[in-house]
Amino acid sequence: MNQDTFQPIKFNQKSHAEKLLDLPKLGKDDTFNFGCKQCGQCCRNREDILLNPLDLFKIARHLNKSIKDIMDEYCEFYEGSVSRIPIVRIKPREYRQTCPFSDKGRCIIHAQKPAVCALFPLSRISNVQENNFYYVVQPATCGNMNQTQTVRQWLDEFTILDEEDITILWHQKSMELSNILRELYSTHNFNTEDITIILFLTLYFKYDLEQDFRPQFSANCEEALEIAGKLSSVKEDGSYG
User: Fold this and answer.
1) Mean pLDDT by 10 residues, the chain (241 residues)
2) Residue 156 and residue 150: Cα distance in Å, rounded?
3) Does an H or E element contain 132, and which?
């Protein structure tokens, strides 16, 4: 894939992670109250639906399209302002900033919707030290509070809990890559846009949709770290140390 095919957008995302950390923590078998009314409100006014490589892989397979087609039609990517790693987000329509996968209020990829959408109104926070997650209930202006279920029951329709090992690996490798890039960019004057494109193609694109995701993903993460590691050995004069 020619790296000139894609260009990262300029996007400044304001994280609300600090607010989420103050909310009550839930385990998989803890209960919360929320009932979805299928109003589609959670699909509007959204600029923050981020995709990990597994999300993109599953959407492409579900729609029987290539990852390139999904990126061209529905997504865009940018360099994280803090993490410095490539980040993919769903590109909303101009009208009410509606998700492009929403059709008359119904999600056309419901069975394979991104984890962040399947979780709503929950948010998942990783505990890197213990290699697991806890959950919080985000403030929601839609739905009702008449339905009670456990986190596990809420997610039972999807494969999120079965894929936690992939998500944990993604968080671990993302942090490793972020640490390398932040150190690298603080000491070298690189064209970060070119590096972002190369890492984006490596982490999100190099998949055979007919094959199992896990081994491909693991190999791509290691390749991305290897690329960043080689860049770290470049001296200020452009030579390798």
Assistant:
1) 57 61 92 93 90 98 98 96 96 92 92 95 86 90 92 95 94 96 91 94 97 98 96 61 48
2) 10
3) strand 132-137
The first and second tokens of residue 209, run together, are 């949709």
**Beta pairing class for 132-137 and 122-127:** antiparallel
Q: Minimal CA–CA distance to 21: which of 150, 140, 168, 136?
A: 136
Cα 99 to Cα 29, 117, 129, 148, distances in angstroms: 31, 11, 34, 27
Q: Rounded to 5 degrees, what are φ and ψ at 22?
A: -85, -10
Using CA atoms, how far residue 213 sits from 53, 163, 175, 241, in Å, is 9, 11, 20, 35
Q: Which of 80, 13, 21 is nearest to 49 (CA)?
A: 13
Asked if residue 91 lies in contact with residue 77, where contact means CB atoms within 8 angstroms, the answer is no
